[in-house]
Design brief:
Layout (H helix, E strand, L loop, with lengths): L1 H27 L3 H19 L5 H10 L9 E6 L4 E6 L3 E8 L5 E3 L5 H7 L27 H7 L2 H4 L3 E8 L2 E7 L9 E2 L3 H15 L24 H5 L16 H7 L6 H4 L15 H15 L2 H16 L5 E2 L13 E3 L1 H12 L3 E2 L2 E2 L5 H5 L33 E5 L3 E6 L4 E7 L9 H11 L6 H6 L9
Antiparallel strand pairs: 1-2, 2-3, 3-4, 5-6, 5-14, 7-9, 8-9, 10-11, 12-13, 13-14
Length: 474
């Protein structure tokens, strides 16, 4: 019996030593996967608390833990409102990651814990805050027409709207005809667009293109690419996701995209140093790193740091009246053009209306002629799925396969964000939510149902009117 007790005591001691050693390892050298998970949690909680005004525990449970990796259920967060910081730790102890709120520029991951550098990277002279008004949408936030009953019924159908829908806005002939919101969300809630941000970032670049400061054919885009095969990469190659740069966009594990977003304070570093895997223009590679490079390039072309920080607001958001838009920067001061734009569903729809009108707003051309056309033109290397302007023609299948109009094009984002633009129907459908890809929801189902429910044009004159590239009228 004594021998057995000695064995049990030895095993218990060994177990304690193993636990201590494991804890020490997690404390001193936490695995990258835990750091990514904590970085993701800190960033998402920070943005939703400080921008959207949501409760931290709700965001942690609903946005971070419910749809994600099971390990995320062991993450704990704390919000320091005095210093505008969020900290996330695995099991409340290990792999601490941080996010910092910087006012008009939203939140940023601070993976190195250098809050001083992150604070100093954002300007102290942010763009002036715009105020919404009660004029009719899109001039203001007013809605004058009762909701279309047929479409409202569709949006109430979870099978059509999709799991965990948070906002749907339907725009026809330049006016909101129906909208719906999930529990806890409203027309005033800023929501993340994830990769829909890429198309907005491309439009910001297009504003510079209108002023002649950049063009599709520009090469030698980064100083570090000088005397390098990467110097041959053109702006058009980046816009079409055909740069030839290697980049791993797999969100299931630690990959290039998650390292860039949650482990590197300078998001430009990883894609800018990526090797070439193909000649420019020869291979389609969907890459969030490409969008961040475009941010850095257009910011450099603005020519003045302060002006660059204000440029999205001054050149795009203010003219369109996107009063809620918050375009976030990384910890070193580059706009996260791949992922991090928060805006209300009304403001996302404004951007869609802007593209529907070929980049014209209130009679003023804000994008070069042909720029929106590039957003609707497929690239050969993507087999017709992606376009020349950071947008999709066929996410998850061709329009024809779903019985949709041929001129439909899309903005799409992680976890079920989508915007369908159908010029021939003068229609925009914005759908935002938290719908992981594993649920196999396809927004084409929603769009097809809405198209079928719309009243048909009365005649050739109305059809012609829907094609005019002008500011909508009541």
């Amino acid at each position: 019996m004594r021998f057995v007790l000695r064995i049990l005591k030895a095993l218990a001691l060994l177990l304690v030593l193993v636990v201590i050693a494991a804890a020490g390892w997690l404390f001193i050298r936490p695995p990258e996967l835990l750091r990514v998970g904590d970085g993701y949690a800190a960033k998402i909680v920070c943005s939703n608390v400080f921008i959207a005004g949501r409760a931290a525990e709700d965001v942690l449970h609903d946005d971070v833990q419910a749809p994600g990796n099971p390990l995320l259920r062991l993450v704990r967060v704390s919000v320091d409102r005095d210093n505008d910081r969020v900290t996330a730790r695995f099991m409340g102890l290990f792999a601490p990651s941080y996010a910092l709120y910087r006012g008009a520029f939203g939140c940023t991951s601070v993976p190195d814990g250098n809050f001083e550098a992150a604070a100093n990277a954002a300007p102290f002279d942010p763009p002036a805050k715009m105020q919404a008004n009660d004029a009719l949408w899109p001039e203001g936030e007013g809605i004058d027409n009762p909701a279309d009953g047929k479409i409202a019924a569709l949006l109430a159908d979870a099978g059509v709207a999709g799991p965990a829908m948070r906002a749907i806005v339907v725009v026809r002939n330049g006016r909101i005809v129906t909208e719906a919101y999930g529990p806890g969300f409203s027309a005033k809630t800023p929501l993340i667009g994830w990769s829909m941000t890429k198309t907005v970032n491309a439009a910001v670049l297009g504003r510079l293109m209108l002023g002649g400061k950049i063009s599709f054919d520009d090469d030698n885009l980064l100083a570090q690419w000088k005397n390098d095969t990467r110097a041959r990469i053109k702006v058009s190659d980046l816009l079409g996701m055909e740069s030839g740069l290697a980049f791993n966009e797999d969100y299931g594990d630690v990959a290039d995209v998650t390292r860039m977003l949650y482990l590197d304070p300078d998001m430009v570093s990883l894609p800018a140093n990526a090797p070439m895997e193909a000649a420019p223009g020869q291979r389609f590679r969907y890459s969030s790193g490409t969008a961040v490079l475009l941010s850095r390039i257009w910011m450099d072309r603005v020519g003045n740091a302060q002006a660059a920080f204000s440029y999205p607001h001054d050149a795009l958001f203010s003219p369109l009246g996107m009063t809620s838009a918050v375009f976030e920067l990384d910890a070193r001061g580059t706009f996260a053009g791949s992922s991090y734009l928060y805006a209300t569903a009304h403001d996302w729809a404004r951007f869609g209306q802007f593209l529907l009108q070929d980049g014209v707003w209130n009679g003023q051309r804000l994008l070069p002629e042909g720029f929106v056309g590039a957003m609707r033109t497929p690239t050969a290397a993507s087999n017709g799925r992606y376009t020349q302007g950071q947008a999709w023609l066929a996410p998850g299948g061709s329009s024809a396969a779903f019985g949709l109009p041929e001129d439909t094009f899309w903005l799409t984002g992680h976890d079920g964000q989508s915007m369908a633009i159908v010029p021939s129907a003068s229609l925009i459908v914005v759908r935002l939510g938290l719908t992981p890809s594993r649920l196999d929801y396809q927004p084409q189902v929603l769009l097809k149902a809405i198209l079928a429910a719309l009243p048909q044009p009365r005649g050739p004159q109305q059809q012609a009117g829907s094609q005019r590239q002008t500011q909508p009228q009541p």
